[in-house]
Amino acid sequence: MTLGMSLGVALVGLEGRLVNVDVDIADGLPGYTLLGLPDTALTESRDRVRSALVNSQENWPNRKVTVSLSPAWLPKSGPGFDLPIAIALLSAQQSIPMEHSESVLYLGELALDGQIRAVRGVLPSLIAGYKAGIKSAVVPYANRLEAQLMVEMTIIPMRNLSELLRWLRTNEREEEQELPLVHDEPQGGDDFSDVAGQERARFAAEIAAVGGHHLLLIGPPGAGKTMIAQRLPSVLPPLSRDEVLEVTAIHSIAGGLTTRSPLASCAPFVAPHHTATRVAMVGGGGHYIRPGACSLAHRGVLFVDEAPECGVGVLDSLRQPLESGSITIARSIGSVTYPANFLLVLAANPCPCGNFSGRGRNCICTSIQVRRYLGKLSGPLMDRIDMRVEVEPLNRVELTQSNLGESSATIRSRVIAARAIAAERFKKYPWKLNAEISSRSLRIEFRLEKEAMNFLHNELDHEHISARGLHKVMRTSWSIADLALHPRPTLADTVKAYEMREGLNV
Amino acid sequence: MEHIRNKSSNNKSTGVFGEEAVAQFLLARGASILDRNWRVKEGEIDIVARLTDGVIAFVEVKTRSSSAFGHPLDAITREKASRLQRLALGWLATHRCLGADYRIDCVAVLIAASGTHTIEYRANVL
């Protein structure tokens, strides 16, 4: 028989689909045909597979080789099919036993010398294979950490083709010892104790961490906006295993796991530059749709510094993910949905020169310039921001006092405790964070204390606050109450939340 | 200069040896040789043979004394294959037998250092 087969995975977004790689070796002039909508990188697999086989002392058939990747209608991309093609070719030549062909998933790019190189999207590929009933997978050694997250499957990391073929032929391989899931603590570098003063902004950051509320920091250059935002992940609770899977899958698709450990349990922090395009922000691309910054920040913090300097529409493209927690990108090759449940932190100067704060004495901008500057942040976007906090320039006393502020670890333990209270309260509901309470439930189960509601309704009557704003304030009140260990938000909690949202006229 | 001439004549005799070997191979299987080295401006057909079932086979022979430069049949590119096709039709037209059943075969002859040779016959390759 000159037919061989093996299994690979084609990814469209985070969704994977099992692909049968069939190889037929027929008499005829030497040739190689690859069927099944391959992209350029995949078409080039021919030369990589050929060299890898020959340099691993295997036989390359000098006959007419037809490789078919089915389902044929599904566009396939990337070099990850090198390994399944090589295995199918060898099984067509009967040089390896067929028993593994239909039960093992193969992922990997081949180098010309037969090394198996890392590929993108290993974790989502494995998840797809597992859902299709595959129990074991051969992955590149360099991707082994990421693959190990898939504890339900037998993962066989391989460095090169010869090692893999030895295993297929003799069932012998060097046993890898499993690496423990290392939950690296984010405290390593940045700590909140570095931030001098800024009590109000620190408090806002803590509330944001408890309830997942979006935050706008306004202040002159050098006051510490960026410092506070960068330290926000250090007070967020560690991700659960399911969340690590989600986050690692997205980063794996984007090919960004070089900077983030696949086993990292700290919340991701993504800070796109203000010149980022809409596609960079929400995702997109030609024949393969990349996740954007807002998906990379899933379960973590998306920080946009100098927000008013962003291009027209870039920040507003975040409105959909802010609302739904996911982003759907439609392109000619299909539409892809990536999760995008992030905590948005915007930072802005109060005016183009940056000094219009306090008494605004050093500001050289005209009043129109000042008004226009923050006006660049659109109303609908600002309406989705729960807290707008002014970060005042530091004075001498704050900067020189020797007792540091609270450390990230202290704040984090309070945040974890407050989140536990919220989780207990939300046991019967589909959400976990205060920011996610549905407006329906806010009116029924999660009302505030009576005086607090009266206060808010009063503000609504005077048109000081919109209906959406009222709900936002209620949600923030719950986070403040959880921190203060109040069973239900009191008037004081609510006034604090109201000031955080409406105190600054932006 | 001497060296180059030698080499070229070597290659030529290698080719002739291979073609002769394939002709003997075909005769041994009951085919009759209709033509050898039929040459026109566009190229050459190595062997034309009528097989036992009446099909006319146009045979391209590639002879190598080492496979260091790849398999002999790798030397037959798509372009060369379509030229073989045109040549075959040309031969049929010249000999007034257009419409006859025909096929194109490619043969690799590999001569080992010991002087023995192997024939790899691929029938009906186009």
From TrEMBL, chain A:
<protein>
    <submittedName>
        <fullName>Unannotated protein</fullName>
    </submittedName>
</protein>
<dbReference type="InterPro" id="IPR027417">
    <property type="entry name" value="P-loop_NTPase"/>
</dbReference>
<dbReference type="Pfam" id="PF01078">
    <property type="entry name" value="Mg_chelatase"/>
</dbReference>
<dbReference type="InterPro" id="IPR004482">
    <property type="entry name" value="Mg_chelat-rel"/>
</dbReference>
<dbReference type="Pfam" id="PF13335">
    <property type="entry name" value="Mg_chelatase_C"/>
</dbReference>
<dbReference type="InterPro" id="IPR025158">
    <property type="entry name" value="Mg_chelat-rel_C"/>
</dbReference>
<dbReference type="GO" id="GO:0005524">
    <property type="term" value="F:ATP binding"/>
</dbReference>
<dbReference type="InterPro" id="IPR014721">
    <property type="entry name" value="Ribsml_uS5_D2-typ_fold_subgr"/>
</dbReference>
<dbReference type="InterPro" id="IPR000523">
    <property type="entry name" value="Mg_chelatse_chII-like_cat_dom"/>
</dbReference>
<dbReference type="InterPro" id="IPR045006">
    <property type="entry name" value="CHLI-like"/>
</dbReference>
<dbReference type="InterPro" id="IPR003593">
    <property type="entry name" value="AAA+_ATPase"/>
</dbReference>
<feature type="domain" description="AAA+ ATPase">
    <location>
        <begin position="211"/>
        <end position="395"/>
    </location>
</feature>
<comment type="similarity">
    <text>Belongs to the Mg-chelatase subunits D/I family. ComM subfamily.</text>
</comment>
<dbReference type="Pfam" id="PF13541">
    <property type="entry name" value="ChlI"/>
</dbReference>
<dbReference type="InterPro" id="IPR020568">
    <property type="entry name" value="Ribosomal_Su5_D2-typ_SF"/>
</dbReference>
From TrEMBL, chain B:
<dbReference type="GO" id="GO:0003676">
    <property type="term" value="F:nucleic acid binding"/>
</dbReference>
<dbReference type="InterPro" id="IPR011856">
    <property type="entry name" value="tRNA_endonuc-like_dom_sf"/>
</dbReference>
<dbReference type="InterPro" id="IPR003509">
    <property type="entry name" value="UPF0102_YraN-like"/>
</dbReference>
<protein>
    <submittedName>
        <fullName>Unannotated protein</fullName>
    </submittedName>
</protein>
<dbReference type="InterPro" id="IPR011335">
    <property type="entry name" value="Restrct_endonuc-II-like"/>
</dbReference>
<dbReference type="Pfam" id="PF02021">
    <property type="entry name" value="UPF0102"/>
</dbReference>
